[in-house]
Amino acid sequence: MSAEPNRADLGKDPGRVSGMFDQVAAGYDRTNTVLSLGNDKLWRIAATRAVAPRPGRRILDLAAGTGASSVSLARSGAEVVAADFSPGMIAEGRRRHSGIPNLTFEQADAVALPFDDDTFDTVTISFGLRNVNEPQRALAEMLRVTRPGGHLVICEFSHPQSAAFAGLYGFYNNRILPVVAKAVSTNAEAYEYLNESIREWPDQRALAAWIRAAGWTDVAYRNLTFGIVALHRATKPDLRNQPGRLEG
Asked: Is 126 marked as a binding-site residue?
């Protein structure tokens, strides 16, 4: 007998969110490609280019799911840690990608990361910050584990800037996507939560303000696919290089 579908809600209880992603892990990447009309691959390319991975770099890929984005980063020769809150996602990622020597998988909660301070050159998260119940606390944790002068890259659903396109996008999300999700997903109710979470998520400027408030500098973003998605970038201040600072 199959388990009852696990559906998260906007309360974003960690147990329910994790359980929901456990249930969709096996078909997650395929479903995302179908529902995004193939745009997920273009968004992943944009995020990888923003991270600019290269040998010698340590990268933390949060909300990594089954590791699709992590593999793209690891192909550069960088050392990549793929972290996700869902044990089902981590297990699926290890099953698929265990042969990549510079890619490791770890279960991790974004609001309490199990890594030392100043560990990574870059922290990135794609389509995962929206599912964290305390996203501002998570942004502070990402800052903590990033080395001074290191970078943050966030790829997340956002708000189209054109009213006409926003109407078309809303029609697709509310009318078309639920029908397609029932046909291709093992847990169509999970994608009802997806719609709700996108509608309630702050827009580009608001998220940029959250990032600044967490202590990041040089915060900037650019829209992808007319603002359906926004790519945010920021830098951790390097206080060691501030003029007039006394060492001791």
From this structure: yes
Residue 205 lies in a domain: yes
Instruction: Consult the annotation and say whether 66 binds a ligand.
Output: yes
Give the residue numbers spanning the domain of 147.
Answer: 14-237
pLDDT tens, position by position, 22-78? 665 566 666 667 677 788 889 999 999 999 999 999 999 999 988 989 999 999 999
| Residue 245 in domain | no
- Give the pLDDT of residue 184: 63
Question: Is residue 86 a known part of a binding site?
Answer: no
Is 181 marked as a binding-site residue? no
| Tokens at 221, concatenated | 């973003």
76 is in an annotated binding site: no
How many domains would you assign to the chain?
1
Could you give the residue ranges of the DSSP H alpha helices within 58-176? 68-74, 87-97, 135-145, 163-171
Question: Between the CA of residue 81 and those of 106, 162, 195, 223, what are the distances in Å?
Answer: 7, 37, 29, 27
